[in-house]
């Protein structure tokens, strides 16, 4: 089995402004697995705030050695080989995990959701993210984005109420809000959340820095809206630790190491009574279409990443239908490179 | 899709003696799903101590109505229909769940372990159960049973040390012991376990009645051997509750409602740091071969149920190879009815 590794720069349609900074590009790594006439695709995006570099991911991927008696259906053995090679670098594992699952589905001839026995009718609507901006810019954007039934607002600054009010000028669609660790005072956060609960807001992501465990637990005990851990949640151990600290967890393939880990995290979260949000980075339709395959297991979906980039190299994956991202019926993840159009 | 429901009486090769009683038969229910030329098989055994009757299971199964737009790969929708019909009756759901998974595998053309991406090289050896008997009978049986690398002893009476010593007269193979709630005094139990730890015993199942949560937690904190909950563990919620009470959990398809639930329980147990034992009832090679498909996920395996019955109506499923029960490569669960031999 041949692995190709390709650094790639995602160009954002609009500058992406968060509480922690702004950017116009996201580094990513694309991988391909070639095996017996099949080509499988994987990807991971590397937003700088996570601290993982394109170089480190490419170098880790180059170390992978597959088992001699390679069986493309033996994901356990293949993922063990991948883990052994990349070590503690979840995004490298995520790219391989997605490609291995794509190959798995292509060998069998079924999309992944079908191989997991999932019901696509259970997929929740996906939210679409409006990045931090002036009230005027938010009003303009909220009016423009009509295909999504839920809007997500990046908050965590000093103008949070003005931002929500601006969007509410234009639409009564439900909102989710993401503080991205941008809040600092827990009483002020609780006051704000009380107000947000009257604005048809569904949930609040990561109010404070993840190391403020007691403050999150305090807020979770009192908040009228679900408090969802995001930056705090990278592994199944983090899901277990989230009980009593958050109402729910945001699970992203790039953070946790891919579909295998995300599937386990969704199962464990449900068992522990935690709500689940399936999220993403700004990334291509490859990683998005992979995550969509798991989305019947999630309570909320925030998989707008491919809609935020201008140079998606893939096509044919998940499609937005009536506000829901729905996987296509093609085997595996379901995407193909645009260059191969017509093949 | 047509469902056939057949009450069946399992005849035991030898009377099965537990701390709670003895019996020579086990009631069971066999089911078949007929769909587009495929026939899928399911089963549940109903040992009387669990309190579920053959009649109740058959009546519940007869209530099942499949979705109109039935898709055999949409296990979520099919299991939801099954659950809705059978209600809170895990064994009825287990029989349907096994048959639905068998059909799922047959439609796709792969054994279930492959569809879960599992590595059969990780399957642990299975234990073989010696029922309660005189030291002489135990010595005889221990010498006779040579194909299994681990023996399991049913304890919980007044002659536990004598029973273990009798087996130790004949073999130094590792033992697991199952008290089946038969112990009553926690200090005496801890003393006995201390002695068992010197006898190459691997684990201890269900020392006391499951409602004695504090006593199990006390014992788990002090025991040199892993304490495994069995009768206490019927659902994923029981797995969550087992943390701090037991070192591990015994997961059986008949108790929990089948492969879907068992898979989730194995995942959750591992996330919580609990050990996992995949167990069984006295049952045919249908239910055993179903459980074997999940066994790469378990720390220990106790799937001797089909070896204990004299009238197994199935063949061709999991095979005992060097002490390990290994699934066959046939699609789905992998068994076929003996009457169909040669077809």
Give me some keywords for this one.
Enolase-like, domain 1, alpha/beta, 24% strand, 12 helices, homodimer, TIM Barrel
What's the arrangement of secondary structure elements?
Two copies of one chain form a homodimer.
Chain A: E1 2-18, E2 21-35, E3 38-45, H1 54-62, H2 75-86, H3 90-108, H4 112-115, E4 127-130, H5 135-144, E5 150-154, H6 160-170, E6 175-178, H7 186-197, E7 201-205, H8 213-222, E8 227-229, H9 236-242, E9 248-251, H10 253-256, H11 259-271, E10 275-278, H12 285-294, E11 300-301, E12 314-315, E13 319-321, E14 324-326, E15 336-337
Parallel strand pairs in A: 4-5, 5-6, 6-7, 7-8, 8-9, 9-10, 10-11
Antiparallel strand pairs in A: 1-2, 2-3, 12-15, 13-14
Helix pairs in contact in A: 1-3, 2-3, 5-6, 7-8
Compact description:
The structure is a homodimer of 343-residue chains. Chain A is α/β, with parallel strands linked by helices and 343 residues long.
Descriptive overview:
Two copies of one chain form a homodimer. Chain A is an alpha/beta fold and 343 residues long. Chain A has two domains: 109 residues, Enolase-like, domain 1; 226 residues, TIM Barrel (Alpha-Beta Barrel), CATH 3.20.20. Helix content of chain A is 35%, strand content 24%. The first copy, chain A, has an eight-stranded parallel β-sheet with strand order 4-5-6-7-8-9-10-11. Chain A is globular, with a radius of gyration of 19 Å. The model of chain A has no long low-confidence stretch (mean pLDDT 95). At the A-B interface, helix 2, helix 9 and helix 11 of A face helix 2, helix 9 and helix 11 of B.
């Amino acid at each position: 089995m041949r692995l190709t590794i390709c650094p790639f720069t995602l160009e954002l349609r609009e500058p992406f402004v968060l509480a922690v900074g702004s950017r116009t590009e996201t580094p990513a790594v694309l991988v391909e697995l070639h095996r017996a006439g099949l080509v499988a695709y994987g990807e991971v995006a590397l937003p700088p705030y996570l601290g993982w570099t394109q170089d480190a991911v490419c170098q880790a991927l180059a170390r992978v050695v597959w088992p001699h008696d390679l069986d493309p259906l033996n994901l356990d053995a293949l993922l063990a080989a991948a883990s052994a090679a990349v070590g503690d670098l979840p995004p490298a594992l995520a790219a391989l995990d997605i490609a291995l699952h794509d190959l798995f589905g292509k060998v069998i001839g079924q999309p992944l959701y079908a191989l997991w026995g999932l019901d696509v009718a259970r997929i929740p609507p996906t939210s679409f993210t409006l990045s931090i901006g002036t009230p005027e810019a938010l009003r303009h954007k909220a009016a423009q984005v009509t295909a999504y039934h839920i809007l997500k607002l990046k908050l965590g600054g000093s103008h949070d109420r003005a931002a929500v009010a601006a969007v509410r000028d234009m639409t009564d669609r439900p909102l989710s809000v993401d503080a991205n660790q941008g809040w600092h005072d827990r009483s002020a956060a609780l006051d704000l959340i009380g107000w947000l609960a009257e604005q048809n807001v569904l949930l609040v992501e990561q109010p404070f820095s993840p190391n403020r465990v007691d403050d999150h637990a305090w807020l979770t005990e009192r908040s009228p809206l679900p408090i969802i851990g995001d930056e705090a949640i990278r592994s199944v151990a983090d899901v277990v630790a989230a009980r009593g600290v958050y109402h729910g967890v945001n699970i992203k393939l790039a953070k946790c190491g891919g579909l295998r880990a995300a599937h386990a995290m969704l199962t464990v979260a449900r068992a522990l009574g935690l709500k689940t949000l399936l999220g993403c980075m700004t990334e291509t339709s490859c990683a998005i279409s992979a995550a969509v395959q798991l989305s019947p297991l999630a309570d909320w979906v925030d998989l707008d990443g491919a809609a935020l980039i201008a140079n998606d190299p893939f096509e044919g994956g998940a499609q937005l239908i009536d506000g829901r991202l729905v996987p296509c019926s093609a085997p595996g993840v379901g995407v193909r490179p645009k260059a191969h159009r017509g093949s």
